[in-house]
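[SOLVED] Need 3D model of a three-part complex

Original post:
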Amino acid sequence: MKIMPCPLNGPRNISEFVCQGEVEIEPDPATASDRDWADHLFMLDNEAGVVREWWYHVPTSYWFIAERNTVTDEIVRTYPTEELIERGGHPADFESKS
Amino acid sequence: MPESDQLSVRPAAFARRSFVYRRLESAGAWFAEIGGAAVAARFGDTASEVETARRLGLADLSPLPRVGFKGAGAMDWLAERGVTIDGSRPNWSWRQGDGSLAIARSNTESLILSNLSGNRYLCDRLESESNEGMEARVYVLPRYDGLFWFALTGSCAVACMAKVCGVDLRPSSFVDGAVAQTSVAGLTTTVVRCDIGIENAFYLLGDSASAEFFWDALLDAMREFRGDAVGLWSLQALQAEVK
Amino acid sequence: MSGGASRLPAPWGAYIDRDRTVRFSFEGREIEGFAGDTIASALAANGIRLLSRSFKYHRPRGSTSMSGDDGGGLVQVGDEPNVLADVREVEPGMTVVGQNYIGSLESDQASILERFKPFLPVGFYYKAFFRPRGIWNYWEKLIRQTAGLGRVDPDTPRRYYDKTYEFCDVAVIGAGPAGLAAAAEAAESGADVLLVEREPDLGGSLAFQRFDPDAFGAERTLCRLRERVAGQSNLRVMTNAVCTGWFADNWLSIISGNRLHKLRARSVVACTGVLEQPPLFRANDLPGIMFGGAAQRLIRSYGVKPGRRAVVFTSSGDGYGVALDLDDSGVDVAAIVDPGSASSGDSLTLAARDRGIRVIQGCAVAEAVPRPDKLNVAAVLVGPVSGSDFIADDRERIDCDLLCVSTATAPAASLLCQAGARLQLSESSGSFEVTSIPPNAFAAGSVNGFFDLDAVIEDGQRAGMSAAHTGDETAPAAVERERGQTRRYWFGTEHPDGLDFVDFDEDVTAHDVCDAIAEGFEDIELLKRYTAMGMGPSQGRQSALGAARLVARVTGRPLSEVGATTSRPPAFPEKFGHLAGRAFKPVRRTALHHRHVELGAQIMTSGLWLRPAYYGPEHARAQLINEEVRAVRTGVGVIDVSTLGGFEIRGPDAAEFLNRMYTLSYHRLRVGRVRYAMVLDDAGVVVDDGVAARLARNHFYVTASTTGAEEMYPALLWRQAQWRLDVDISDVTSSTCAFNLAGPRSRAVLEKLASDIDFSRAAFPYMAVRVGRLGGIPVRVLRIGFVGELGYEIHVPSAQAEALWDTLMEAGDEFGIRPFAVEAQRVLRLEKGHVIVGQDTDGLTNPLEADMGWALGRRKRYYVGKRSIEIAAAKGIARRLVGYRLVGSVGTVPEEGCLVIRRGEIVGRLTSSAWSPTLGRTIGLAYVAPDQAAAGHVFDIKAQDGRMVRAEVAALPFYDPGNTRQGL
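Solution:
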């Protein structure tokens, strides 16, 4: 079984984790076209190479980001979500936008 | 320690009840009151139970106090109240002066377990002050009701845990104080190495709704080592020997 | 002598205990062996070599390796099929029979199949059974009867298997000379070492092979290595333990007895040795032909004289050692046949010549001649070698009952290959060599190309040292030793008359392979699939080399370009029992579970939860459910809803979080009030619902459905990870139990109890929440009405839930309180037209279809799924959820899932259907076409028995349309 290095719990059997797929930036629902919105919902990039993915450690309910090579299945790096996602940057943050 | 010919208390006589009290009753437990709940003090005679606990014993500590705190301000808030804990070191535990245990489950979440005498003081004090903690981003978690608390002790505990848990718990890799939040017997469990008088003692805390499942699964895994349920008194006796 | 006529005296027979006779039966005949014998060795001691019949042509077969590496020794032991006879130890009273024969093992009626060989060409299955269309259905039945080897007994009793995890720094697989040296060296370097050996004892080749003229010279080396290993406290040894798989990040599966060990090692050293390979010649599969190592195992491990008159066919010193062992154990060695032209000068070769054993140099075995009964070899035909693999026609016949073959070896590399190493044909030796060994993996000894005993041990030490220092940058790099002289091998070639088997398991001959290549299957992977070669029990351990060489020769490709097929786990047989092991299936019980059982509840599962379905005996199900419904409508009932999810949402942004996550608006919800909470996914599909209670300005308590709770918590946290609001989300599902006290008399029950909560209608209105104490126990009480009556959902700390339940039941006694359960609740809510997410919605349902547009905060700027709902609304919906009642005299009551049909087309389906005792008729919810959704519209349902049933759209709710009762 593969080992996933968890930023909170250290190396663990990958069976303790769930992968939620690639990190995607949600388009602003107020301005995105129907087509862009549908793309966001239903189309995956499915790139060959290093991609950024959401991973979840079930026993600690912990979300983090893993950079994984989809060709070799090598896990390049894992880190807490705060390193990737800024506070107030989400399309739902109307106050920070105005 | 009370005389053994005293009458056992009935778990159902208290509002607070262990999640496995029926299992304990049918195994012939003799109950004593601790902090408004009945705890399985012994099953047979404590002297032989101490020997079982040295080899492989499983004790239900669920009636003892515990409480959790979570939030961006939780660790500082606890430190201000004299609790030794370090949020920068998640998955570690610290013994407090009164023998209770403070566990850092993450940078922002803690779990406080009482000592083996079931002294409520620390848990109660912290819990009552937590109402004022909302402004400081401190949120109390009702862990007494959400988590069962078992202790697995003895020289065979590591080998027994290896049958149900994929984390390396060998004494060299998982030292006294270490914490692992992982899957044990298919159930999300917090494993704490907490040597209470003997080496290789583990506190196991998991979803209270699965307490009976977990109790049964552990006893099954323990059978090949001739392990068995033990009462709180045998653990207290082991701890007293060291002091 | 007891234990079989062919027993040798001690010290031969290291594994057997001559003081303990073991009796068992084989093919109905009583056999005597010793404790420590395998089935095959005990049978060999009694002159029996024939164990089973081959898969395709039913040819007689015995074990050729005596080590479980070939597929010839599979037998049935009691109810257990496909047992390796050369590995399984004998037990008193075991019943052993051969496999894959019709009639008797010795006279198999199906052996006639061999005569049809010309009509059963390679790829026969692919060619024969697919035309005309549909013919496969006919052939399949026949083929199923002949396929497979052993018999599975469906009544096999349950056996206890379990699993355990193991951890070490260095795992060493194989305890031969290299493995022992590697383990000792690694342990001496301070690593925590686990040494895994599949045989009962340590030693590997040292335990059975002859390395020098002195018959017991190897034993001294073994003693020395054993002592080194035994002296290490940080070195554990597992014997009788088979490593079957090598997975990612050095995760090894090891089977011993009924236990599967899952080992995680920092680094792994494979010391798995080599496997002897069968050369091609006619009838190379006859019983009586075995590898030299197999004969040596019989002699040394089991004290069995393997035959009377033997021919040894060898290309290296190993075979001369075999001849010496045979000679020492009283076997008449008729000749050593050595294809090499010049005699090698090694000590074993010289010793054999010194004893006067006839050596036929420059010749090879071209054919084995069977006995008249065809069950054993009777003679070999030997001819001079011409060219590298060919034998000239000038043949000498040598009579013998045993042919020992030691002409070639291949690395036992299946585990290494699973880890990422590759097998490649070597131009110099003509056999496979292991290349591309991945990091943190090591190979040592003969699997790594070393054969000289000193070199093997040195290579083991090198690997052990390197493995112990894995990850340590400062450690000195170990020096690789030169591999020394290449061994001489002989592989043989096709015989013009056939029966030159490449793969014994699947009866694939060299001709079959050549035919397949001629048909274009020259890629080794395609060749395997077309011929089935390597797919049998021995998984190509003895056929991959032969096949690769044929491919190279027939296609003219250089040897180095031909590899082996992909190695996949398991490398050795595993039982389903091992894989299943002790399965953990956590169940969740509410704190009231035992109270339900005591009340006679029928328990059902809902997700991981155990829940009551209804209370009382199964035969009275319908009546009991009706009674429970009636109790709630007319008096008071109580249901355990502890399985509902519960989340604490706390912090300055708590309301903002809810506003984004749930479809309604929560900023202006007053403290002490409750509001419905529905969650959509990004595509606008309804995924869960519950209620949100505002306990303080910055504190909400939100529930989720029983089945949705598990998914909801990660979903909430995932959104929060992106929104990063100043809020804390905690799952309190298990710390909170809840029960719903419902019915016109529920208030009376509560008012009987001591409480600081005012339950009066004015002080505690519908959709309000109060926090306080009830009977001394802390509670949160939500006044909500899923079942459409005056009702209170009481949330209580789990540890005190049973006490509160007892108090309530006691207080409710005088009001006729009755516990009700899931089935009655489904009816009650259906009477109110309330939707159950997951039952009345599916993976595509949006709120507009489910007629829940009222739950969408239309003035909100954002909530999860809002954009998709807007798109869906603009497009228009394709179906609509409505209530219905059956029309006219109804014969069949259509069940949930039945289809709504209009003009022969499917337009919807029933999602809920139940008898309503309150209304005295069958009611339900169904999806219909949007233009059928108006009340009074009549539509057709195709019932489960195929009959068409009429239904009429009914306005919702069916019961108490003015919703007056829940507000009482």
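Edit: The two ends of chain A are 49 Å apart (CA to CA).
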